[in-house]
Specification:
By secondary structure, the protein is an all-alpha fold. The protein contains 13 helices and no strands. The protein has one domain: Ribonucleotide Reductase, subunit A (Orthogonal Bundle).
């Protein structure tokens, strides 16, 4: 495609491969796991005993780790906001049954299982004030997100590539910590969720890779713009009952840092991984502005590394209303 290639043209071109994308990166509904595969079955004779086992194991979950698990659950439960955002980007026609709208709906259907499973686990655990969790979730849905992508598919796919890698990492780390504490059931749940997120990350990274071959300069500028703005987590407006918009997220982030579930270093490592995956330093045929953008991106990890070395982990100084006791 020429330098005058528009985003709509690129999206329409990629759309011709949508059947392949769906078959490669997503799984058939009848074959993929469902939340009930991991939870006690209500008509099973051992139903009450299995719930008791969940409750007993949940007592051993560290408060910081439980906070991270709850925050991850709330993030997953805010899925309607994410689907609405993706359905509104340029090149997606909500009225179509196929193409990009089919991808967004199918991706949403897979993601929907994550919050469903974790929410039910938290409810059964006996350690969580579910009403407070529900209030935070409702606030998050009402407050929405501002991830600085507007309706641009290029910026949106940079964001989803980064974010899906981050959620994969977070769920995978929670799985490891849960397993280390002997909570194999929770570990299995989080590991399966992480596997989904990894597939989704692979898909969105593939979309960006394809765009780099079709419209390299504009894709490079979009990537640079997102990294200058910084990738914010989708739950950055998180708050508790009676709280102000966004004030809870820093406390949640501190807990994630203390547990080493998601850290500043992880942000840098994900950026490095994307630079490598997309061969940023080797892309040619760029405009002058795009070459400057590429230089900025290549040098950014070292700049962030120097900054991160000056950041200290905050001590636990907030009592979350989500957790009993």
């Amino acid at each position: 495609m020429t330098q005058r290639t528009t985003r709509m043209e690129v999206m329409k071109y990629l759309e011709t491969s949508m059947d392949t994308f769906l078959d490669t990166f997503l799984k058939p509904v009848e074959e993929i796991w469902q939340p009930t595969d991991f939870l006690p079955v209500s008509n099973h004779p051992q139903f009450i005993n299995e719930i008791q086992e969940i409750r007993e194991l949940a007592r051993g979950i560290d408060d910081d780790l439980l906070t991270v698990l709850i925050g991850d659950t709330i993030t997953e439960e805010a899925l309607p906001t994410y689907e609405a955002w993706l359905m509104d980007i340029e090149g997606v026609d909500q009225g179509e049954k196929h193409g990009w709208s089919a991808w967004m709906r199918a991706w949403t259907a897979e993601e929907n299982r994550h919050g469903d499973l974790l929410n039910k686990y938290l409810f059964l655990s006996g350690r969580v004030n579910m009403r407070e969790v529900e209030i935070t979730t409702q606030h998050l849905l009402r407050d929405g997100i501002d991830i600085k992508t507007a309706k641009d598919p290029y910026r949106s796919f940079v964001y989803t590539s980064f974010q899906e890698m981050a959620t994969n990492l977070s769920h995978r780390r929670v799985a490891v910590l849960a397993k280390n504490s002997g909570n194999n059931a929770l570990a299995k749940m989080c590991a399966f969720i992480a596997s989904d997120e990894n597939r989704h990350a692979t898909a969105y990274k593939h979309f960006v890779e394809k765009i780099f071959t079709l419209d390299p300069s504009e894709m490079m500028l979009a990537f640079e713009d997102m990294m200058r703005k910084k990738i914010v987590m989708p739950a950055h407006y998180m708050r508790e009952s009676g709280g102000k918009i966004g004030e809870l997220f820093s406390h949640f982030s501190d807990a994630a840092q203390r547990t080493m579930v998601y850290t500043t270093q992880d942000y840098i490592d994900i950026l490095n991984s994307l630079l490598k995956s997309w061969n940023i330093d080797k892309i040619d045929g760029l405009s002058d502005k795009a070459q400057v953008a590429r230089d900025y991106l290549v040098n950014l990890p070292n700049r962030l590394q120097r900054i991160s070395e000056r950041i200290s982990v905050a001590p636990a100084n907030h009592t979350f209303k989500w957790i009993y006791g």
